[in-house]
Specification:
Helix 1 (about 25-35) packs antiparallel against helix 2 (about 35-45) and helix 2 packs across helix 3 (about 50-60). The protein is globular, with a radius of gyration of 16 Å. The longest helix is centred in the N-terminal third of the chain and has 11 residues, at about 25-35. The protein has a domain at about 20-80. The N and C termini lie far apart (about 55 Å). The chain is built from 5 helices and no strands. By secondary structure, it is mainly α.
Length: about 100
């Protein structure tokens, strides 16, 4: 579990308390957002592609750019992956 020792990915977490199974969604999210190729390979080997895809689909913390990239990478339907803004139409604040 070499990735769990990377302070660059988990700068805000006490690494001793991070459990690979218990906190897998959090770990995968961090790798998808900030990890490099080695980190992604570790996650794919450790958790499997299906688990990573499930995190991409159910995730609400990935930014739109990352969501779009991982949807393309895993060939996931955009409607399942990309979340729209919570309001359908935003009004201009000066027209209120």
């Amino acid at each position: 579990m070499e990735t769990l020792k990377k302070t660059s990915l988990f700068w805000d977490v006490e690494l001793k308390t991070l459990d690979a199974e218990k906190h897998k969604k959090f770990i995968i999210e961090r790798i998808l957002l900030f990890g490099n190729v080695e980190d992604f390979r570790w996650a794919r080997d450790f958790y499997g592609e299906k688990c990573i895809k499930d995190v991409v689909i159910s995730n609400r913390t990935l930014d739109r750019k990352s969501q779009n990239f991982w949807c393309q990478y895993f060939n996931i339907n955009q409607k399942l992956c990309i979340r729209n803004q919570s309001t359908k139409r935003q009004s201009l604040f000066w027209k209120r």
